[in-house]
Amino acid sequence: MKTYGKVIVVTGAGSGIGKELVLQLLKKDASVAAVDLNPVSLNELVAIASNGRLATFVCDISQRTEVEHLSEKVLEHFGAVDGIINNAGIIQPFVKVNDLSFETIEKVMQVNFYGSLYMIKTFLPHLLTRSEGHIVNISSMGGFLPVPGQSVYGASKAALKLLTEGLYAELLDTHVRVTIVFPGAIDTNIVQNSGVEMEKPDPSTMLSATAAAQQIIDAMGKNKFRSLVGKDAQFLDRIYRLMPKQAVHMITRKMKGLLRNS
Ligand SMILES: NC(=O)c1ccc[n+]([C@@H]2O[C@H](COP(=O)([O-])OP(=O)(O)OC[C@H]3O[C@@H](n4cnc5c(N)ncnc54)[C@H](O)[C@@H]3O)[C@@H](O)[C@H]2O)c1
Fold first, then answer.
1. Which of 44, 124, 177, 237 has the greatest count of CB atoms below 10 A from its CB?
2. Best substitution site from 19, 84, 193 to test ligand 1's pocket, by max atoms within 8 Å of Cβ?
3. Whole-angstrom Cα distance, residue 256 to residue 95?
């Protein structure tokens, strides 16, 4: 769906890819409902964007009732919604499943999978009434390829991938298009925002959030089924499909330094 003149809801809008999505959508004359857990980052967004087509909403997407209230508030403000970009997400600490608490496991699933599902289930009935609508879900290259130390994060993103692909099929004969996005390594503050302690990877090895957001909006505009954002995601997608076992060994060697051993 082309975003010009449309109303788009972006979750995780206060930082990283989400913030860039908001800024670029506004430049393309869309109206944007910017949603985040963090009110401070939303205020900072308003300070840099200051645009009559921008409205911010504090909401924890992992809470179903909060998402239901969110949809009421967004519809009250804009009158309609044409698209949602489920971008909010968190990573897990870089530890093995054996060392991961159920509390953390449930939180990661709750934000990355259920949060996106609550958004979809809440906004879809309205999107189906529009002449066109679009749902974009941000998974991860970790959603198709296992990364040791991020196994539950990967599982949450793989669940989102399958949910999205199922939705794509179910909505084929409607006016609602569906896109799944697999970013590779993107230069954002996701590590700190997720409360994870580790050294920040070298930014020169990562794609900028600006470039990632550009590619996501482009994929939306072209009604793409799937979008691999970054050379790393494109390369690993190919390798994993050709040689899954070798790809797992390769990524395990690469991630060895990051994985905390118990
Ligand atoms: N950065 C990467 O390398 C990378 C790679 C692959 C996929 N992704 C995915 O891209 C998306 C955006 O990540 P980012 O790197 O821009 O992260 P980020 O931490 O910079 O931004 C994420 C935003 O989501 C918000 N958020 C977190 N939990 C929330 C909740 N429960 N309700 C509402 N908002 C919440 C945070 O406050 C933050 O502003 C995530 O889904 C992430 O998993 C990122």
1. 177
2. 193
3. 11
* Closest CA to ligand 1's atom 36: 12
Query: Strand locations in the chain, DSSP E?
Result: 7-11, 31-36, 54-58, 83-86, 133-138, 176-183, 186-187, 207-208, 226-229
Nearest residue to 188 via CA among 160, 168, 207, 169: 207
Three-state secondary structure call for residue 133: strand
The C-alpha atoms of residue 60 and residue 70 are separated, in whole angstroms, by 10
DSSP 260: B
| Ligand 1 site, residue 88, Cβ cutoff 6 A | yes
- Sheet of 31-36, strand order: 54-58, 31-36, 7-11, 83-86, 133-138, 176-183, 226-229
The residues, any chain, with a CB within 8 Å of residue 231's CB and separated by 6 or more, are 184
Encoding tokens for residue 71? 């949809």
Q: Is the pTM of this model over 0.85?
A: yes
- The model's pLDDT over 107-166, given as tens digits with 9 standing for 90+, comes to 999 999 999 999 999 999 999 999 999 999 999 999 999 999 999 999 999 999 999 999
Residue type, 233: A
CB 252 within 8 A of CB 172: no
